[in-house]
Design a protein that fits this description.
By secondary structure, the protein is an alpha+beta fold. It is built from ten helices and 14 strands.
């Protein structure tokens, strides 16, 4: 009686060669795969024409057991879009400017070897992703995934005005420069929005944000109660009035959400203070916003042109993650 040799598992690395040291990263994935008894990994660099969807599709056609992604937030978004719903786990190697999904998940930001070992391990956990249907002024539509945040309005304009050379040299702080360029000429726009099948709301706003998770770089909690496993999106409507309104927005996002909420006494202060009229929060499985004139849109920090309508919804548990063994998942 003959027995067949055990089938070796194989990993694939999809990476942005502009954002990471591809040679070194390939060597680490290769060496750790060999040490774990896995087959020689497959490597797929992204290109100008392909942000990661095609590369991921090729890896999946190969039948790999796990996909690792290394690059900026845009690369993570593209690979997540392609792998969602397949049941093949994704391991995120933090790199690039924001590392937004990795930060929200509490992943190690400075140790790629730990995440490579996680990819080659057995601890898997599903998370939600968001989908956005973008309607252009000419009526054409397109659908795209996002793992952190979609937005229409000032947030997208700030991203468009952020200098790529500054992002390379100072990282996420470059977005401050983008904000400085956008705020002086920012104007509110009339928007009609709806959460699930609820009533229509009409406001003048600067941004409408749809969050799958809510933490930004530097520990800023844009939407502190957002969860990546609750089958819902958290919606924030930013509508300050005048300079004091912008002060209230900053106080809400930075001081209230990111500092006071961490402490019991601070939470009591917030309960007594009441609602902040400059920022309104909602939650639902789906939401949409329509505007009278074409307005900039962004997904996970990447420009996606302009639109007159954006419809977003949560896709519960659609993305399977490879995480370090014992990684806490109760709070994500």
């Amino acid at each position: 009686m003959t027995t067949s040799a055990p089938v070796q598992r194989q990993a694939a690395l999809v990476y942005n060669p502009i954002k990471v040291d591809g040679k070194n990263l390939r060597a680490r994935v290769r060496d750790l795969s060999r040490a774990a008894g896995w087959e020689h990994p497959a490597f797929y660099p992204t290109t100008v024409e392909d942000a990661g969807q095609l590369a991921t599709a090729q890896a999946l056609e190969r039948g790999v057991d796990v996909v690792l992604v290394a690059g900026g937030d845009g690369t993570v978004r593209a690979v997540s879009e392609a792998i969602t719903g397949t049941g093949v786990p994704l391991a995120i190697l933090p790199s690039g400017t924001g590392n937004l999904l990795a930060r929200n998940l509490g992943l190690p930001l400075g140790d790629p070897d730990e995440m490579i070992r996680a990819a080659l391990g057995d601890f898997r956990h599903p998370i939600d992703i968001g989908w956005a249907r973008i309607t252009r002024e000419d009526g054409t539509e397109s659908e795209h995934a996002f793992v952190v945040l979609a937005g229409i309005g000032l947030d997208a304009d700030m991203i468009a005005n952020t200098r790529s050379d500054l992002k390379k040299s100072v990282g996420w702080i470059a977005y401050v420069d983008g904000a400085a360029r956008s705020l002086p000429r920012a104007k509110p726009f009339r928007t009609v929005y709806q959460i699930d099948e609820g009533r229509l709301h009409t406001h003048r706003a600067y941004s409408v944000l749809f969050a799958n998770c809510g933490t930004l770089p530097a520990g800023i909690a844009l939407i502190p109660e957002a969860s990546i496993t609750d089958a819902a999106l958290d919606i924030a409507v930013i509508q300050p009035t005048g300079v004091l309104g912008w002060v209230a927005v900053w106080r809400k996002i930075w001081w209230d959400n990111s500092v006071l909420r961490r402490f019991r006494a601070g939470r009591r202060v917030l309960e007594r203070r009441g609602r902040n009229a400059s920022v309104h929060y909602f939650r639902g499985a789906a939401a949409e916003a329509a505007v009278p004139e074409s307005t900039p849109v962004e997904l996970d920090g990447d420009e996606f042109g302009s639109a007159v309508r954006i419809t977003c919804w949560a896709d519960p548990g659609a993305l399977l993650l490879a995480l370090p063994s014992g990684h806490p998942v109760a709070m994500i």
